[in-house]
Write a structure and sequence with these properties.
About 40% of the residues lie in helices and about 25% in strands. The protein is α+β, with helices and mostly antiparallel strands.
């Protein structure tokens, strides 16, 4: 009794289809949450308005909300003078694993540079670090919202 073996080409197509379907499922799990506003491909919470108006040239800082993303939790500190962003840094980061730490260490300098150039949370994410990028942008938007920007 000889069995008929499927061709490697057919097996490859089936494997590719299964992988694609799995990828779609993973992306759907991380879909945009309702009630959030999209900014540069990321989702950010709506900004809040400040309770008082600070002097126009005053130097102020705020730490954004701790944002949980796929590989940990991040919060961003922003310093402004008037409405000009003068500094952006990570206030806290709790990785879930060492790979998360490496990925975020790689992405943060690019994200900081993007925020300084854009002078807003409307930043481009880092390829390969999309969850870290989204968490960074969300926390940055939260900090800017606290400052009324």
């Amino acid at each position: 009794m000889t069995g008929r073996r499927s061709s490697p080409f057919k097996t490859s197509r089936v494997l590719l289809a299964a992988t694609s379907a799995g990828f779609v499922v993973v992306l759907s799990v991380h879909a945009v949450m309702p009630g959030r506003k999209a900014i540069a491909g990321f989702t950010t919470p709506p900004s809040t308005t400040p309770t008082s108006t600070p002097p126009s040239g005053a130097t102020r800082s705020a730490i954004g909300a701790s944002e949980q993303f796929g590989y940990g939790t991040i919060s961003v500190k922003v310093t402004v003078q008037g409405t000009h962003i003068t500094a952006v840094s990570v206030a806290s980061f709790q990785p879930l694993e060492s790979y998360s730490q490496q990925l975020t260490d790689y992405a943060v300098p690019y994200l900081t540079s993007e925020a300084m150039s854009a002078q807003s949370a409307n930043i481009q994410g880092v390829s390969g670090a999309s969850y870290s990028s989204a968490g960074f942008a969300q926390s940055l938007q939260s900090a800017l919202g606290q400052l009324g920007l």
